[in-house]
Amino acid sequence: MDVDKGISAGDPALYARVSHLHFVARQLVAGVRTGSHLAVQRGFEAEFLGYRPYVAPHPLKDVDWRVYARSDRLVVRERRAERELACLLVLDASADLGSTPQKWARAVEATAALAYAVLANGDPVGLVIGAGEGSPERMIPARRARGQLARILLALASTRPKGRAELGRLFEQVGEQARGRMLVGVISDFMEEPGAWAGALGALARRRVDLRALQVYDRDELALSAEEPAHLVSPETGRRFPIDPGAVRSAFGDVVRTWRGEVERAFVAQRGLLYGLAADDPPVPVLAAWLAGRPYVAARAA
């Protein structure tokens, strides 16, 4: 996939970021391919069309034997296989996701790699950016047209984390835009209160989407690794909170575990898959599991 066409070199710094992102995405997808055949697995069955009479030499394994037991008729169930699976990637570009440079970089690189992999599999892919600033586009419809990867990488390379994503409203908007069966992948740290967005996942479930989420986190941030008293600064509001890490570390750990459990339950309730990705972990195993639609237990912060 050549991303040079369609990317203006008028801004050398932006061009360099797009080129770097393309290189990283290509390397990550190559790593996924090393371990297994690259294919985005469907999380739902092919559409049932009806029955037709059995005619030899059609394989007997396709006969519906329950119908035969009731009626003595040999019939075959016809299904329409999904020729392609449109994928819409939803990136949370809030200030919280940019609270550490490593976390933001990992989220953007993972999003780029997933877009690259989906297109390499021959499926349409699109991008929605929640919050943030700087991107020339915030909503790129799912397509597999020439130049689609360049368009997505340009949006990712241009985006700077800022503001609040308001995940609940974002999920509702994506649910309204979903047409037919599709894969929706959310890339976020899910730092917003789960009670504010968990219910909105139903807007996606009602559209029969295959829902997969990638939760990117920074171990040091969640472990409250600082030793000396300091001020914590909210990336979204700018408010400062004095804190003595040694005095609150144990209670903070309990809060983090409770929050992560709420995030997990929100996706389980909608039959979605949630993957954890630490900013300092190799992303290939997690991305491979995400693409295959199989569970993966990532190492977590203490």
Our Rg estimate from Cα atoms comes to 22 Å
Order of strands across the main sheet: 5-4-3-6-7-10
Overall geometric form = globular
Assembly state: single chain
* CATH class label of the largest domain: Alpha Beta
CATH homologous superfamily label of the largest domain: von Willebrand factor, type A domain
Number of domains: 2
- Main beta sheet strand tally, sense and closure: 6 strands, mixed
Sequence stretches where pLDDT stays below 50 over 5 or more residues: none
What name is given to the CATH topology of the largest domain?
Rossmann fold
Describe this structure in words.
By secondary structure, this protein is α/β, with parallel strands linked by helices. It has two domains: 236 residues, von Willebrand factor, type A domain (Rossmann fold, 3-Layer(aba) Sandwich), CATH 3.40.50; 34 residues, no CATH class. Helices cover 40% and strands 20% of the residues. A six-stranded mixed β-sheet has the order 5-4-3-6-7-10, sandwiched between helices. The mean pLDDT is 82.
Quick recap:
The chain has 302 residues and is of the alpha/beta class. It has ten helices and ten strands. The strands form three sheets. Strands 5-4-3-6-7-10 form a six-stranded mixed beta sheet, sandwiched between helices. Strands 1-2 form a two-stranded antiparallel sheet. Strands 8-9 form a two-stranded antiparallel ribbon.
